[in-house]
Specification:
By secondary structure, the chain is an alpha+beta fold. It is built from ten helices and 21 strands. The protein has helices at 4-20, 41-67, 74-87, 99-110, 138-141, 163-170, 226-239, 257-267, 308-318, 390-403; strands at 30-33, 36-39, 95-97, 112-115, 118-122, 128-133, 149-153, 156-157, 177-183, 191-196, 198-201, 205-210, 214-219, 244-248, 271-277, 283-288, 297-301, 323-326, 334-340, 346-355, 371-372. The strands form five sheets. Strands 5, 6, 7, 8, 9 and 10 form a six-stranded antiparallel sheet that branches. β7 and β8 form a beta hairpin. 29% of the residues are buried.
């Protein structure tokens, strides 16, 4: 039996030790006494669990580092292991991204970047070739034209086979200068253009008034700015007294769920837009309010309409708020989140499934249009307009019936 005096002395000693070490008994992990280190049972079990679960990874990494015939980059090995972990999930929407890949994702969702505002592609001759300058950007104002070959950026040679690298060099902080060396058909020598970068806004919305006062809005993505742009275009069309609205979602791969919900709320009355469920069965329902457009609605979709595009189409179809025209959509019924890591890398992962208002899970099947219309076979996969765009022509025909013309 330990006397009260000895117990008190022991308690005082323990308090002194833990105070000096700046730890508490509950958080005590290890304590060195002489040449021995004493750890708690919980700590022992924790590290034993690490060895059992990750020992194979550590062992193989160390073996390769020691025995491979060339010196290996250990950081690269770890990055590869992390990427492989995500790939093993076998979900194309759950991925690990290096710093560049993650920054590119953020750029796409924000809809803005620092640069000169040109769209480029690898040319058949191996040069970086301008597809088109974006309207009212430094590139357009500097006189860059479709077909121009960009040979150098700030004196550095660039090539079409390394397009991503070339684009990265042209991008930069707004207000900073960049010099392009351009080869133009018919020119006898290189054209040197000194351009100051600006914040470039990726335009995801465009609109016009078609025949018989039919409004037309084209959505190419759902980024952070799309909802505000859509609202402005919708207001402009309202002021022109449109009688009906065609929303074109063809080849729109989706984007932010929040943006999609905001746009759906402008078009739909009091109804469910979409609901999601996670692995635990937790359901989140998104609804629109009573306010909506007061004219007929037609949506254009095709096999390139995915994710947020399908959410909007599903809400319109199930709510009988409009007519869907085109071909069956892509069929992506999963919701992702993305998260940054402290070293600049990041990842996105699937967190839930989504369902249309009537409870349809469209992953792998897509949404069938109310009226199926295909483009002419010889024009599939191409940009079409005018009478060649049979899907739009059908949408106009249906809209004329709706508005009584």
């Amino acid at each position: 039996m330990i006397s009260k005096k000895k117990a008190l002395i022991g308690a005082i000693i323990l308090i002194i030790i833990t105070t000096v070490l700046n730890i508490t008994v509950g958080n005590l992990i290890a304590l060195q006494i002489g040449n021995k280190v004493i750890i708690t049972k919980g700590t022992h079990e924790f590290y034993k669990g690490l060895k059992d679960e990750y020992g194979k990874l550590f062992t193989l990494k160390d073996y390769l580092v020691e025995n491979y015939y060339q010196e290996l980059d250990e950081h690269k090995l770890i990055e590869g292991a992390v990427r492989g972990m995500f790939e093993s999930i076998d979900d194309p929407y759950t991925v690990y991204m290096n710093e560049k890949e993650y920054n590119d994702l953020i750029t796409r969702t924000q809809g803005t970047y620092g640069g000169i505002g040109i769209i480029v592609t690898p040319g058949e001759d191996g040069y970086v070739t301008v597809v088109s300058p974006i309207e009212d950007t430094p590139g357009e104002r500097a006189g860059i034209k479709t077909g121009d070959k960009i040979i150098k950026v700030d004196g550095q040679d660039i090539f079409g086979e390394k397009l991503d690298q070339a684009v990265d060099i042209m991008k930069g902080e707004p207000g900073t200068p960049v010099t392009l060396s351009i080869l133009r058909e018919g020119a006898k020598e290189f054209i040197e253009l000194n351009i100051t970068r600006e914040e470039i806004r990726l335009k995801t919305v465009r609109s016009e008034v078609l025949e018989n006062d039919i409004g037309y809005i084209r959505l190419t993505a759902f980024d952070e700015e799309t909802a505000n742009d859509f609202r402005q275009h919708l207001t402009d069309l309202d002021e022109k007294n449109i009688q009906g609205l065609i929303v074109d979602l063809r080849n729109n791969p989706g984007g932010l769920l929040t943006t999609c919900i905001e746009i759906a709320d402008m078009l739909l009355g009091d109804q469910v837009i979409v609901y999601t469920e996670d692995r635990h069965g937790v359901r989140k329902v998104e609804k629109s309010d009573k306010e909506k457009v007061d004219y007929p609605l037609v949506l254009l979709v095709n096999e390139g309409s995915a994710s947020a595009s399908e959410i909007l189409a599903g809400a319109v179809k199930d709510g009988e708020a409009g007519t869907i025209i085109g071909t069956t959509t892509f069929g992506k019924g999963l919701v992702q989140q993305f998260k940054p890591l402290s070293d600049g890398t990041g990842f996105k992962f699937t967190v839930s499934q989504y369902y249309t208002p009537d409870g349809n899970y469209i992953h792998g099947t897509g949404i069938d249009p109310d009226i199926e219309v295909k483009l002419p076979e010889d024009l599939e996969g191409q940009e079409v307009e005018g009478e060649d765009d049979t899907q739009l022509q059908k949408a106009i025909e249906v809209m004329l019936e709706k508005i009584g013309n």
